[in-house]
Amino acid sequence: EPIVVIVGAGHAAGFLATSLREGGWRGQVVLIGAEAHLPYQRPPLSKAFLSGEIELAELLLKPQSTYDSAGVTVLPDTRVERIERTRKTVTLSDGKSLQYHKLVLATGGRARRLASPGMEGMDCQPNVHYLRSIDDVLRIRAQFRPGARLVIIGAGYVGLEVAAIAIKRGLNVTVLETQERVLARVTAPAISALYERVHRAHGVDVRTAVEVTGYQLGPFGDAVAALLCGDGTRIAADLVIVGIGLVPNTELAAAAGLAVANGIVVDEYNRSSDPDVFAIGDCSNHPNGIFGQCLRLESVPNAMEQARTAAATLCGKPKPYNTVPWFWSDQYDLKLKMAGLSQGYDQLVLRGDAAGQSFSAFYLKQGRMLAADTINRPQDFMLAKRFIAEAVALRADDLADESIPLKSLLP
Ligand code: FAD
Description:
Elements: E1 3-7, H1 11-22, E2 28-32, H2 56-59, H3 64-70, E3 72-75, E4 80-84, E5 89-92, E6 97-99, E7 102-105, E8 109-111, E9 128-129, H4 134-142, E10 149-153, H5 157-168, E11 172-176, H6 189-201, E12 205-207, E13 212-217, E14 224-229, E15 234-236, E16 239-242, E17 246-248, H7 251-255, E18 264-265, E19 277-279, E20 284-288, E21 293-295, H8 300-314, E22 326-331, E23 334-340, E24 347-353, E25 358-365, E26 368-375, H9 378-389, H10 396-400
Parallel strand pairs: 1-2, 1-7, 2-3, 7-19, 9-16, 10-11, 10-16, 11-12, 18-20
Antiparallel strand pairs: 4-5, 5-6, 8-17, 13-14, 14-15, 20-21, 22-23, 23-26, 24-25, 25-26
The protein binds flavin-adenine dinucleotide.
The site of flavin-adenine dinucleotide has 37 residues, from helix 1, helix 8 and strand 22.
Pfam families: Pyr_redox_2, Reductase_C
Domain FAD/NAD(P)-binding: 4-307
Domain Reductase C-terminal: 326-410
């Protein structure tokens, strides 16, 4: 009986396991995950799970019974240490080895560590945290006390989502960002300005263009007491959360001699440089036909779509991966949904009132839409995905004019 071994038991892996059965895969499916939990959703980790609104069981993609009835074996708390492609085996952390016919790497990524000079050793302190897993959040929640001084390093999605939850819980929150504006790498200046405004209105101390250059320990030397910034300021802290990005887990693939370049290199069917080995989710670098380039994406829609693609290929019904990337972030009552990739745009068009809380930013290149950031505008988001996928010719004036329904701009 053929056997698919899936390395990692995160979002992509969990979705793949059930998609394989739905696609008609009759052989064995084994899911091996380093964490102690069944596959779960990470987005709530910086939102409703951090705030305590939902509990652990609600994070799980599927309960154990679903894997049981689908005949999927899940091995939690187990790492794959090595892949031997010639013998088609993987070696596990408990010393056992396992045979595969097809192998899928869904190893995701890990939080990027603070490694700049002056910061050495800080992240070993018990009040300094990264945020990637359930276990990280459980540790953070234990220190999330009203009145505590929280310093967040990094104003990306994770950092800002944490700030929104923490301020609601009554912590004193400071966000430190080295770039000139928050979300600088991913959104237009108008969107960054909105987020800075809303966070400040809720009482978050947002500081941009500031570099953390050092830290001080408390009197007992067993916790960080303050962060030191390049401009000479000292910020007292009871708790520090670092959100400065992700490093894909590609070491296992590289050691097995698979092609790796900012992720495990795969084709449009999610096959790596070895046709019996696939890679999906945050760890894969895949071609996107719509944008004509290779991408490594860190989002749930991508993890699911790639799992779907790999399942189809493994079940003998290959269908190339080809979708418009998208992402969402929830902070306060702002629902941000973004589609496409803005890189290389030559025109930025705003639709709606940028001073308010409902507008969209459209990025065009030679009259075609590359990307859209929409705030509280699900309809604009849905249409933008179509404008991008279908390369619809658009005029900036029409997009900006709210008296013209966006829908009427479809051919
Ligand atoms: P992961 O979910 O990271 O799973 C990989 C798993 O593989 C991990 O459990 C890891 O321990 C395991 N593993 C790694 N190496 C091995 C090994 N050798 N052996 C065994 N197991 C191994 N996306 C959105 O679209 N919207 C959001 O709002 C959003 N918010 C997020 C908030 C936070 C706090 C975080 C951390 C992520 C968020 N994301 C969001 C991103 C999204 O969660 C990821 O894109 C998604 O989880 C990727 O799934 P994956 O399966 O590729 O990787």
